[in-house]
Amino acid sequence: TLICGVFISIIFGANEDFFKDKIKEGLSKNEKINLIQDAAEKDAVLKAEAEKNWRYYQRFHFHATGIGAMVMGVLLFISFLSAPEGIKNITSYATAIGGFLYPFVWLFAAIYGPELGREVAKEKYAIFGYMGGLFLLGLFLSLFMALRYSFKTSK
Fold first, then answer.
1. Domain locations in the chain as residue ranges
2. Rounded to 5 degrees, what are φ and ψ at 84?
3. Considering the chain, what percentage of its residues have pLDDT values greater than 70?
C-alpha cells in the first residue's frame, strides 16, 4: 500500500483534474442527485459531494502511506522479538494483510461513491474496512509480544 499511496500522490500532482473530472462524471449519473428539482439546491449538493468524494481519494493516500509505513516498522520490530514463531507469524500476517487491504475501502469509495452514493459505496466494499480490525489485532498482538517477550540476544 505504501507504493500505491505514493503512486496516487504522484498522479495527484501530475493531473489532479483527472480525479475531479471522474467524480463530476460519476455525480452526473447519481440517481438521488438527479431527482433534485431545485437548481440551486442541486448545485450545492453537487459541490458538497464532489468535495467529500475528493477527500476519499486523499484518505486513501494518507491511509496507504501511513499504515504502510507502520506495517513495515511493526514487522521489523516483530522480527527482533524472541517470541515463538507461531505467534510472530500470526501477528505478522494480521498486521500485513489488514494494513495492506484497509486503505482500499477509501479508494473504492472514491471511485464508486459519486455514482452509487458515498454510503452505498462504503457498504459495498466494507470488507476492506473490516481489514482495519485485522490490522489493529496485529498491533495489539505486537504490543502483547513486546510486553511478554524480550528481544533476541546474539550468541
1. 2-148
2. -60, 145
3. 99
The b/e string for 130-140 (b: 16+ C-beta within 10 A; e otherwise) is ebbebbeebbe
Give the CA radius of gyration of the chain. Answer: 20
Q: What is the pLDDT of residue 155?
A: 65
Question: pTM for the complete prediction?
Answer: 0.90
Q: Grid coordinates representing 91?
A: 501477528
Closest CA to 26 of 93, 107, 123, 111: 111
Written as nine digits, the cell of 134 is 485485522
Per the structure block, which three cell numbers stand in for 69? 509505513
**Longest pairwise C-alpha distance within the chain:** 76
Q: Which of 124, 115, 114, 132 is nearest to 64 (CA)?
A: 132
The DSSP code sequence of the chain is -HHHHHHHHHHHHHHHHHHHHHHHHHHHT-HHHHT---HHHHHHHHHHHHHHHHHHHHHHHHHHHHHHHHHHHHHHHHHTB-S-HHHHHHHHHHHHHHHHHTTHHHHHHHHHHHHH-HHHHHHHTHHHHHHHHHHHHHHHHHHHHHHHS-B----
